[in-house]
Amino acid sequence: MARDLVNTNGSFSTEVERHLQTRQGVSPGEARLDDWWRALALAVRDRATAGASPARLAEAKEVNYLSMEFLIGRVLEDALTNLHLTDETRALMDRHGADYDAVLRAEPDAALGNGGLGRLAACFLESLSTLGCPAYGYGILYEHGLFKQSFDEDGRQAEAPETWLTDGSPWALRRMARRQTIGFGGTASDAGWYPADAVIAEPSDLPVIGWDGAWTNTLRLFSARPVQPFDLARFNAGDYAGAAEEEALARTISRVLYPDDTTPEGQELRLKQEFFFTAAALRDILARFEERGHALATLPDKVAIQLNDTHPAVAAPELVRLLTDERGMAFDDALALAQKTLNYTNHTLLPEALERWDEGLFGRLLPRHLDIVDRIDAAHARAHPKRKVAARADGAVQMGVLSFIAANRVNGVSALHTELMKETVFADLNALHPGRILNQTNGVTPRRWMQTCNPRLAGLITGAIGDGWVADLDQLQGLEPHLEDAGFAEALAGVKRANKVDLAGWMAAEHGVKADPAMMFDVQIKRIHEYKRQHLNILETIALWQAIKDAPNGDWTPRLKLFGGKAAPGYVFAKEIIHLINSVAKVVNADPVTRDVLQVAYLPNYNVSMAERLIPAADLSEQISTAGKEASGTGNMKFALNGAPTMGTLDGANVEIRERVGAENFFLFGMTADEVVRRRAVAGHAAKAVKADARLAAAIRAVRAGMFGAGFDAIVDNLTGPDYFLVSSDFTDYWRAQREADRVYADDAGWTRMAGLNIARSGWFSSDRTIRGYMADIWGAESLFD
Question: Closest Cα partner for 622 from 681, 540, 679?
Fold first, then answer.
């Protein structure tokens, strides 16, 4: 499709200056950085959303992506890049004496997600727009996101609210006419549901601009508002706090991503959040479908709904309820339509992440939906009488089972993960529904994760093979012959050096971290969890520190160990891992014997913008989860595409990365998923591993003895006791692989070639490829460009 769907009339600079004066109320000479980025955002939004032709959409199949997270980060630079407005904007900033890069940095990260789940959703929406597939993303407009992370004097995680929405967002266009009323509680019968409480779901639309600006989709996020915002009678009676109580309670629903669910109140709020945005999305989808004049029986032909993990799993009973209670459809017909329309992406094999809601809580908040879940189970049991698998079982509603039963397709997100789904968590359901599970390996958008975040590398690639790779990442294969050219190889090494210098300067200025760019930048950035094994990394760091102290004149490869990531507020063990990393950093960085060859830094408040600095500068990518536990990963793909070889296990998409870049360009260690299962069956496996490796034993003794402070008994006891994630058992091979990385890094030419081959052979990991797979295999959707 041509660019005729975008308003390209008039000067973009003129539009920006108009918004600066009419919306920000300042002249260009008076404008601050905040004024400039907001005016730019408004001008971009106008240009991106104008001129869409409803006639072109009338018969298209629409994709609707429901997700608890959309980790979009900063939007402006991505939008300017995709609209090819970067040069004009730079010129505008130069004319008015504004710093273009500083203006971009003035935009706060949108606090709408936490980790890979949310960043994947953001990449998918951008690829849907790039490919011209009509789509809506649906979620919550969180006022405070997850939390803003800092560290106290002891190196423990401290949490404060994110304030990214304090002054509003120019990207979020309120759609008051599309507000929905969402109920909770009350009573239910065969005649329907009679909620006791209700809130208003107020949508705001954010534009998602594809490459070349040829198509823009919509991210529609809901804010919770009270039905009755203010009680004047209570206010006049002197109950000022009580007068606004309903507003405060309603807004609680959209304040924080993943509220702590270690309390009954937290569990109730989480379920409310999930139903709130899912129900609002389904009402909006059906309203738009009916406005297009389609008959309900054609819903699966015109609409595809993707459930991103189990958070929106309540979509199944809610869609059935909307079709039966509110539109008079027979239950069996409604269920059949729902099962043809809904699809489910599974992101985890961890039992605790496959949500289970206590049936008492579920029934109290959603009584009609609990009845419908029972009817869905009954229908499934009638269809499969020999093997009953129910969503409601053992006093809980199992959202993974519900999602599977109610879905047309269920997909995993890497080849290994998909096979393990069939063999483990969904083995019974897979046997009942062969062929329902299929794979769609994750990908990342090259626009954000190469072209925008690593302009030096993007320029080098374009100079060598042209710019077609931005929309067709497989073209990176054309780089491989250039790696034989000494001049190109030196330029590639120079890109990495320059990126490391930039990162070192930023870390020193923003975080007081002094880093030598000549060191290997060894990076692990991801949410903190036992299965991701940040404690394996810091344990090896302790062992390395001890080895250097024992032989300070040895031929050591200088390393900077960089960590980033947040632990869930209620996840005590994960927070102790953060505490340990920071405590080790304090000791190691102060050691005059080792500090020139080993440094450790944990950068606080990891987010998308930080990732955009770290990934281009990384030398080594740490992807060290226990085999069989990481569904896919997308950070591993971003690092490989930016020339950082992987230190990893055969887990998630690591398997496919290694296959594509070549085993010789990947630092493999650790047990396979099958070996993990067998190892867990060995009595005392952790104690045996510690006894067999003197380095491991010495590192654990140092932690137990308080060399890095007190408070780490739980970690030590785990490493020597249950050690479910097999940190101790994989330690010896991890040490071996790290020393192999040292050896290769010492050979500048060899390392550069390895990095270059990672770039050249990782084109398959584009989210464009992933979305094409979803469109063909799951949604049956077509591009408007075809």
Answer: 540
Fold classification of 3-442+771-779 is Rossmann fold (3.40.50)
Handedness of CA 680, 684, 687, 693 (dihedral sign): negative
| CA–CA gap between residue 40 and residue 17 (Å, rounded) | 9
According to DSSP, residue 590 is labeled T
Known catalytic residues are 347, 526-527, 532, 634, 638
The tens digit of pLDDT for each residue in 466-485 reads 999 999 999 999 999 999 99
Among residues 319, 323, 315, 276, the alpha carbon closest in space to that of 295 is found at 323
Please give the single-letter amino acid code of residue 180.
Q
CATH of domain 499-765: 3.40.50.2000
Strand pairing category for 180-184 and 197-209: antiparallel
* Angle, helices 534-550/713-720, rounded to nearest 10 degrees: 90
CA distances from 470 to 75, 450, 473, 499, 637 (A): 18, 9, 6, 20, 16
- Would you state the pLDDT for residue 54? 58
d(CA 435, CA 778): 12
Amino acid making up residue 784? L
Give the span between the Cα atoms of 56 and 468, in whole angstroms.
Answer: 27
* Cα-Cα end-to-end distance for the chain: 7
Report if pTM > 0.85: yes
Decide if 3-442+771-779 and 499-765 have a common fold: yes
Which residues partner with 88 through β-bridges?
none
Q: What pLDDT shows up at residue 56?
A: 66
Q: How do residues 326-384 score in pLDDT, each as one tens digit?
A: 999 999 999 999 999 999 999 988 877 789 999 999 999 999 999 999 999 999 999 99
Q: How far apart are CA 711 and CA 579, in angstroms?
A: 9
Residue 115 is predicted with a pLDDT of 87
- Cα–Cα distance between 560 and 520 in angstroms, integer? 6
Whole-number pLDDT of residue 51: 47
How far apart, in whole angstroms, are the C-alpha atoms of residue 624 and residue 42? 42
Q: What gap in Å lies between CA 786 and CA 781, rounded to an integer?
A: 11
Q: What is the DSSP string of 488-539?
A: HHHHHHHHHHHHHHHHHHHHHHHH-----TTSEEEEEES---GGGTHHHHHH
Residue 53's pLDDT is what? 55
Q: Tell me how far CA of residue 426 lies from CA of 11, 110, 408, in angstroms.
A: 55, 35, 15
* Total number of residues shown for the chain: 786
Backbone φ, ψ for residue 562 (5° rounding): -110, 130
Which two structure tokens, joined as six digits, stand for 409?
Answer: 């397709």
CB 442 within 8 A of CB 414: yes
Are 741 and 401 within 8 A, CB to CB?
Answer: no
Band of residue 582 on the pLDDT scale cut at 50, 70, 90: very high
Distance of CA 765 to the CA centre of its chain: 16
Domain boundaries, the chain: 3-442+771-779, 499-765
